[in-house]
Amino acid sequence: MSAPAIETNGLVKTFKDNRAVDGVDLTVPPGTVYGLLGPNGAGKTTVVRMLATLLRPDGGEARVFGHDVVREADTVRSRVSLTGQYASVDEDLTGTENLVLLARLLGHGKRAARDRAAQLLEAFGLTEAAARQVKKYSGGMRRRIDIAASILNTPDLLFLDEPTTGLDPRSRNQVWDIIRVVVAHGTTVLLTTQYLDEADRLAGRIAVIDHGRVIAEGTPGSLKASIGSGTVHVRLRDGAQRPEAVRLLAAVLGTDVQTEADPVALTARAGVEGSDRGAAEQASRALAALAEAGIVVDDFSLGQPSLDEVFLALTDRPIPEEVPA
Ligand SMILES: Nc1ncnc2c1ncn2[C@@H]1O[C@H](COP(=O)(O)OP(=O)(O)O)[C@@H](O)[C@H]1O
Ligand SMILES: [Mg+2]
């Protein structure tokens, strides 16, 4: 059996008295996308920086393809790539100039460097922008050229630290397509994200991290089965009917119903494990039950659970405030 792409045991990193990473155990199988999901300040980047040998752990251990990140840092470094760290793109150069320059620095011959640059620009949908300066790229194009630069030499393990944060939906989709292409070529990807839907779409397994600790780990399916695959949001015409609506929804959905500060609003998780019906069918039954009871509904929607809802389900409290540095 081949070694895991990443294996950590009790990994710790402390900044002064802040245990930013507080005993993390991870096992990442090779050839997959592994999602590290957590809010701002959870410790995701600190984990990545230790795995990429940029930061020395204060406790525990970490191995990348069986190599210790401290004792065998050079070997680890030869097998990994971190977007925006090892490969930095120059804003004043064009897409082609950047990739050719970096390929030459990595030891490719002139011809091979030009070929590799053209191939990546094509694969990442940047051929038309190839001759344009990177400072004129959109946010989505910029993320794509960053990823292209980090895989000039196909790494065995690629760290993508929040590659889509702040991007519009179309650009996010393009970055997702690229991640799929990278993995199809055999690279293992450690993806950090604040979006459950992103981890759900791309990752084979997900670890949810909170205050430097893994609070849940598993496949997206198992995670969603424990927290619900959807969330029902309801707004009533008349707040006086809310207690009755809460009772009905709890009975139909089989989950707790949250009342919100807004006196006509309710939310509840749907599609939780143990129910034999899917979230959409449960939601439509809930809506029918409200109508039958004469409760007027002004707005009703079924959405993916947000990271807030994941945290509420896993920890019984909202997303933590970031610890002030
Ligand atoms: N270089 C640093 N010096 C001091 N504190 C840091 C440093 N890097 C991160 N931290 C703190 O460690 C915690 C985790 O940060 P980080 O790993 O960046 O979280 P995430 O990437 O999940 O947003 C935060 O409380 C952050 O303020
Ligand atoms: Mg971060």
From TrEMBL:
Q: How is this protein annotated for GO cellular component?
A: plasma membrane
Q: How does it sit in the membrane?
A: Peripheral membrane protein
Major place of residence: membrane
Q: Which residues form the ABC transporter domain?
A: 6-236
Task: Give the UniProt subcellular location, in the record's own words.
Answer: Cell membrane
- UniProt keyword Oxidoreductase present: no
What GO terms describe the biological role, i.e. biological process, of this protein? Answer: daunorubicin transport; doxorubicin transport; response to antibiotic
Q: Which domain of life is it from?
A: Bacteria
For molecular function, the Gene Ontology terms on record are:
ATP binding; ATP hydrolysis activity
Keyword Transport part of the UniProt annotation: yes
Which controlled-vocabulary keywords does the entry list? Answer: Antibiotic resistance, ATP-binding, Cell membrane, Membrane, Nucleotide-binding, Translocase, Transport
Instruction: Please report which protein family the annotation says this sequence is part of.
Output: Belongs to the ABC transporter superfamily. Drug exporter-1 (DrugE1) (TC 3.A.1.105) family.
Listed name of the protein: ABC-2 type transport system ATP-binding protein
* Species this protein is from: Pseudosporangium ferrugineum
